[in-house]
Amino acid sequence: MSAVGELIESYGVSYHQFTDDTQLLVSMDSTNATPAIDRLAHCSAAVRLWFLQKGLQLNADKSEVVLLGTSAQLRSATNITTVDVAGSTLPVASKLKSLGVTTDSNLRFNCHARNVAKACNFHTRALRHVRSLLTDDVAQTVACSIVASRLDYCNALLSGAPAATFDKPEQPGQSRLPEPGSHGRQAAASLATLASGEAAGHL
């Protein structure tokens, strides 16, 4: 365990670190959140001081706060609109993006699914700019290499997600997000076919 990790846990706060990203996690009673929020404030202030002593600057203004829970728990915590983190007062957000995954308050991952589908469609449609220069096989390979990684990245998080996560109303020309278990490369291949058809009509 790292030294800063020991410091964080001494306040009864859980944490996760990845390169220069530090996440603080605290459980709380939605009907009496004050003790947990105070604990988080004291812990984050101590972490900020620890970084300063090591010649590092913690940019609290770029930090984000989100409350996770059931709909009933979140309704009980509607009075919590700001949280003090490392000396800065931060607004409570309904979602945040961490390590490429958009997490919403209900952990339904609706926003994440929409963002992945949007990114896949954007990059697939971008192929039409060079489609006339590519054979069908090369176009499919390029689409797979661009899109498959986005479909596969952290898709285990969507396992068990409600069907509504994948069945959002589609805009014209949009593809729905494949459900977990669909191989990313197969899905990307179908998107490549879509890009090939689009390109034929635009070039």
Q: What is the overall number of helices?
A: 6
Order of H and E elements: HEEHEHEEEEHHH
- The average pLDDT is 79
Low-confidence stretches: 187-203
Strand ordering within the main sheet:
3-5-4
Shape: elongated
Number of strands: 7
Please bin the fraction of helical residues. 40-55%
Number of domains: 2
SSE class = alpha+beta
Largest sheet: 3 strands, mixed
**Could you tell me how far the N terminus lies from the C terminus, measured between alpha carbons in angstroms?**
57 Å
Rg, Cα atoms, Å: 22 Å
Strand content: 5-15%
SSE layout and pairing:
Blueprint: H1 3-9, E1 14-18, E2 21-25, H2 34-53, E3 65-66, H3 71-76, E4 82-85, E5 88-93, E6 95-98, E7 101-104, H4 110-125, H5 136-152, H6 184-202
Parallel strand pairs: 3-5
Antiparallel strand pairs: 1-2, 4-5, 6-7
Helix pairs in contact: 4-5, 4-6, 5-6
Can you walk through the features of this model?
With 203 residues, this protein is an alpha+beta fold. It folds into 2 domains: 3-98, no CATH class; 109-202, no CATH class. Helix content is 42%, strand content 15%. The protein has 6 helices and 7 strands, in the order H-E-E-H-E-H-E-E-E-E-H-H-H. The protein has helices at residues 3-9, 34-53, 71-76, 110-125, 136-152, 184-202, and strands spanning 14-18, 21-25, 65-66, 82-85, 88-93, 95-98, 101-104. The strands form 3 sheets. A 3-stranded mixed β-sheet has the order 3-5-4. Strands 1-2 form a two-stranded antiparallel sheet. Strand 6 (95-98) and strand 7 (101-104) form a beta hairpin. The model is unreliable at 187-203 (pLDDT under 50).
Compose a concise summary of this entry:
This protein has 203 residues and is of the alpha+beta class. It has six helices and seven strands.
